[in-house]
């Protein structure tokens, strides 16, 4: 082996690429955070720690202790750190101290990519979200009452420790000059640090409960509009009831005056009740007061957590959400804006499992990062799936070339398939140009499945041959051979026909039934609990099961004549 460690790796290794990129970054914010008074031990160069961070994260090593071990047995890490083994606490403190500055490096790396000719292609930018698991267990979620008890318990223990320390200090001062080594208290700083950290995490978790209970701006607008409609209806009903009763009072007064003028005692019948005691008017006034109170509450909502709401005590920023593989995970919802060649333009972490409110912030952040990186070319097309379909998002981004799938499964349940305000987007997707743009960008956007559901959401059908894209086309290569005269749509159509022909029978009754005995039944014995059959040819009354006639055990009489 060569004596120089730098000769152990080839020139095209990832380590050299990372070091070249770090040399192009502006690390002034990191350097200025250290003092230059020649006191204390010299710190590690920020360039080395940032290169170590990027190199290890690119290889999937994110634990500070594993990074410390990699500095010992990984050649790339040894070259990055100049054969120095960085302690895991030093590395963790560096990340915690420069967290804000590390986030700003994203734009600088994007600027480095923009300087490469043809690397940044903004012909289409797709926004998508994916759940990421957090470093917290699902059973760490606690309700507000439990969080309050944890806070009070930690504060009580901290107060008792402080009081005990004060008493011990006073006793030591009173017994100065005597041997008081046996009365010295043990080192309780680790326990005090753990209590304070647990108390702070409980406070942040309680704050997250109140923040999540606060409705969004769109929800507040919808609630205010609904409350205003209720107030308008209540005022209209109150005015109609008051006008009708006022006419009745005027009619009775006119009839009374006419009878008195004629010399009679007065009008016959019971006089109408006064306006303030009319039951219908009192009821409408109460409804109007309730509607006005609801309107005031909708305009200035107060976050009130639900009794069943929970927040994680281990990681308050994480949340319980659905996993793509089924079930639930404790994690985050990672939002990504991606261009071609899987180049990330923006990334955001949120705890809301829904993607509906994330489209506008992601588009705005992408535009900010694009301008900050010096990319002057605008985005020609924005793409998103049906999870981002929102009327408020469409109104806010009306001036952008946006294509969002708005097809849902509501029509199967008898409801309207598209909500109010989404018909313009549906009409834009229904055009030949919209369908072609949305369909052509699916392969590099969602390469998990060749027959993507987003294509069907855009308005195409299974008979549309161009809606299917082979898996090998995700890398940009065509599957049509040079010697074949079959075009790509014809290949796709043949594949769709083959897939449809291989589908299982639609009705379970058409499937063959097994003849072997079930588990727990010996061979040769009758099956008293047969499996349920789905007979589509039997027509019975709805709600009535078919009765099974019991066989008679008595022998039938023989004919003697």
Helix content: 40-55%
Order of helices and strands: HHHHHHHEEHHHHEEEEHEHEHHHHH
Radius of gyration: 37 Å
What's the mean pLDDT score?
Answer: 77
Helical stretch count?
18
Shape: extended
Q: End-to-end distance, in Å?
A: 113 Å
Low-confidence stretches: 180-184, 447-518
State the oligomer: single chain
Q: How many beta-strand elements?
A: 8
The gist of it:
With 561 residues, the chain is α/β, with parallel strands linked by helices.
Describe it for me?
This protein has helices at 14-23, 28-31, 46-58, 64-73, 75-80, 88-97, 99-114, 144-174, 189-213, 217-261, 279-299, 359-372, 391-396, 423-430, 432-440, 442-445, 453-457, 488-501; strands spanning 125-133, 141-142, 311-312, 319-322, 328-339, 343-350, 382-384, 402-404. It is of the alpha/beta class. Among the domains are: 5-115, no CATH class; 217-299; 333-473 and 488-497, no CATH class. Strands 1, 4, 5, 6, 7 and 8 form a 6-stranded mixed beta sheet that branches. It has a two-stranded antiparallel ribbon with strand order 2-3. The longest helix is centred in the middle third of the chain and has 45 residues, at 217-261.
């Amino acid at each position: 082996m060569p004596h120089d460690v730098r000769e152990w790796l080839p020139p095209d290794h990832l380590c050299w690429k990372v070091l070249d990129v770090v040399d192009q970054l502006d690390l002034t914010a990191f350097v200025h955070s250290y003092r230059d008074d020649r006191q204390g031990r010299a710190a590690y160069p920020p360039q080395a720690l940032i290169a170590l961070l990027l190199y290890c994260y690119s290889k999937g090593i994110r634990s500070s202790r594993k990074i410390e071990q990699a500095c010992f047995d990984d050649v790339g890490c040894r070259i990055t750190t100049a054969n120095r083994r960085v302690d895991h606490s030093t590395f963790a403190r560096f990340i915690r101290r420069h967290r804000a500055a590390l986030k700003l490096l994203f734009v600088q790396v994007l600027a480095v990519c923009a300087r490469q000719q043809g690397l940044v292609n903004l012909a289409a930018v797709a926004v998508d979200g994916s759940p990421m698991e957090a470093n917290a267990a699902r059973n760490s979620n606690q309700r507000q009452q439990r969080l309050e008890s944890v806070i009070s318990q930690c504060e009580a223990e901290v107060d008792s420790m402080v009081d005990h320390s004060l008493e011990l200090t006073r006793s030591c001062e009173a017994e100065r000059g005597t041997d008081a080594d046996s009365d010295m208290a043990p080192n309780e700083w680790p326990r005090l640090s753990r209590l304070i950290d647990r108390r702070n995490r409980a406070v942040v978790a309680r704050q997250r409960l109140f923040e999540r209970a606060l409705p969004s701006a769109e929800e507040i607008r919808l609630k205010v509009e609904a409350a205003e409609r209720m107030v308008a209806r209540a005022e209209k009903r109150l005015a109609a009831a008051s006008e009708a009763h006022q006419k009745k009072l005027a009619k009775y007064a006119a009839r009374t005056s006419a009878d008195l003028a004629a010399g009679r005692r007065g009008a016959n019948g019971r006089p109408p009740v006064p306006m303030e005691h009319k039951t219908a008017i009192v009821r409408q006034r109460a409804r109007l007061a309730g509607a006005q109170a609801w309107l005031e509450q909708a305009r200035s909502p107060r976050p009130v957590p639900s009794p069943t709401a929970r927040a994680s005590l281990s990681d308050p920023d994480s949340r319980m959400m659905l996993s793509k593989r089924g079930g639930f995970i404790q994690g985050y919802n990672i939002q990504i804006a991606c261009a071609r060649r899987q180049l990330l333009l923006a990334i955001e972490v949120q705890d809301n499992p829904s993607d509906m409110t994330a489209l506008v912030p992601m588009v705005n952040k992408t535009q900010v990062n694009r301008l900050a990186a010096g990319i002057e070319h605008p985005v020609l097309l924005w793409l998103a799936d049906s999870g981002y379909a929102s009327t408020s998002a469409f109104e806010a981004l009306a001036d952008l070339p946006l294509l969002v799938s708005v097809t849902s499964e509501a029509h199967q349940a008898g409801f309207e398939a598209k909500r109010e305000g989404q018909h313009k987007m549906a009409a834009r997707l229904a055009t030949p140009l919209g369908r072609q743009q949305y369909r052509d960008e699916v392969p590099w956007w969602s390469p998990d499945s060749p027959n993507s559901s987003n294509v069907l959401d855009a308005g195409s059908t299974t008979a549309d041959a161009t809606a299917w894209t082979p898996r090998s086309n995700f890398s940009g290569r065509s599957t049509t051979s040079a010697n074949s005269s079959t075009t790509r749509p014809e290949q796709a159509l043949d594949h769709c026909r083959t897939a449809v022909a291989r589908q299982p029978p639609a009705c379970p009754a058409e499937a063959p039934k097994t003849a072997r005995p079930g588990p727990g039944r010996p061979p040769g014995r009758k099956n008293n609990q047969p499996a349920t059959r789905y007979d589509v040819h039997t027509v019975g009354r709805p709600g009535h099961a078919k009765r099974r006639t019991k066989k008679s055990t008595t022998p039938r009489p023989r004919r003697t004549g």
